[in-house]
């Protein structure tokens, strides 16, 4: 496990290329207009990619490659999903 800030939220900006890492988050219950709390981070030994553990909009747990994600916000809240507009308003 890799250390991360407990209030870290990320947003999905899915790569759209033939070599994009799988799974593709927008095809598996994530939205690009929401922020997702990072629940954990892992690094597979055979890859230089980090995988963020996120709960999608259906509350399913997924390992999503960091190349599909962008920093969203640091927000102290018990929520696991937030509308992206809330984070923009708190800047």
Question: What proportion of the residues is helical, as a percent range?
Answer: under 10%
Count of DSSP E strands? 7
The structural domain count equals: 1
Radius of gyration: 13 Å
Which H/E pattern describes the elements? EEEEEEEH
Query: DSSP helix count?
Result: 1
Fraction of residues in β-strands: 35-45%
* Major sheet details: 4 strands, antiparallel
What separation lies between the terminal Cα atoms?
29 Å
- Arithmetic mean of pLDDT: 89
Low-pLDDT regions: none
Question: Could you write a compact summary of the structure shown?
Answer:
The protein is mostly beta strands and 91 residues long. It is built from 1 helix and 7 strands. Strand 3 (40-43) and strand 4 (50-55) form a beta hairpin.
Describe the structure.
The chain has 91 residues and is mainly β. The protein has one domain (8-89). It is built from one helix and seven strands. The chain has one helix at residues 84-89; strands at 8-12, 34-37, 40-43, 50-55, 61-65, 69-74, 81-83. The strands form two sheets. A four-stranded antiparallel β-sheet has the order 6-1-2-7. Strands 3-4-5 form a three-stranded antiparallel β-sheet, with no helix packed on it. Strand 4 and strand 5 (61-65) form a beta hairpin. The chain is globular and about 35 Å long. The relative contact order is 0.29.
């Amino acid at each position: 496990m890799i250390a991360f800030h407990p209030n870290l939220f990320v947003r999905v900006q899915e790569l759209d290329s033939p070599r994009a890492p799988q799974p593709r988050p927008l095809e598996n219950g994530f939205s690009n207009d929401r922020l997702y709390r990072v629940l954990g981070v892992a690094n597979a030994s055979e890859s230089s990619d980090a995988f963020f553990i996120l709960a999608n909009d259906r509350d399913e747990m997924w390992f999503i490659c960091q190349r599909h994600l962008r920093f969203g916000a640091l927000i102290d809240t018990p929520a696991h999903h937030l509308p992206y507009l809330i984070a923009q308003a708190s800047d």
